[in-house]
Write a structure and sequence with these properties.
Blueprint (H helix, E strand, L loop, with lengths): L1 H134 L1
């Protein structure tokens, strides 16, 4: 009986050791699972943040592209207006040159008319002087 009792004790001791190892193994496994869950949570949070940032950057890129397109359109309009102004300026210059000779001719004509007026004025004054001498 003693041998049986010793065998029983030894078997119980071995079983307890196996259970202790199993509990330790289980605790280690449980810790690993907790760490893995934490890593997965952090990675999900990081992925969600990265996706949000990517969406924000995509929105900003789209807005920048829209602004660039608008600016290109405005530049094209400015270039067209500048070309129109240059065309109008060239036309005005051509008109000025063509009218310049007309202006010169008009100045000459005005000078001649002023001289003729002065001559007529002198003649009228002489006539009036002659009339005055006749009346006396």
């Amino acid at each position: 009986m003693e041998t049986q009792s010793e065998e029983l004790k030894q078997a119980m001791h071995e079983e307890t050791g196996a259970l202790a190892v199993s509990v330790d193994d289980f605790a280690a496994l449980e810790e690993r699972v907790r760490r893995a869950v934490d890593v997965v949570k952090r990675e999900r949070d990081a992925r969600t943040a990265a996706e949000a940032r990517a969406a924000e950057l995509e929105t900003r890129a789209t807005q920048a592209e829209t602004r660039r397109t608008e600016l290109e359109a405005r530049v094209a309009q400015s270039v067209a207006r500048q070309a129109d102004f240059e065309t109008r300026a060239a036309l005005a210059e051509a008109q000025l040159k063509s009218q310049s000779s007309v202006i010169e001719q008009l100045k000459i004509d005005v000078g001649a008319l002023n001289a003729e007026r002065d001559q007529v004025k002198q003649r009228v004054e002489r006539l009036l002087t002659q009339l005055d001498t006749l009346e006396l």
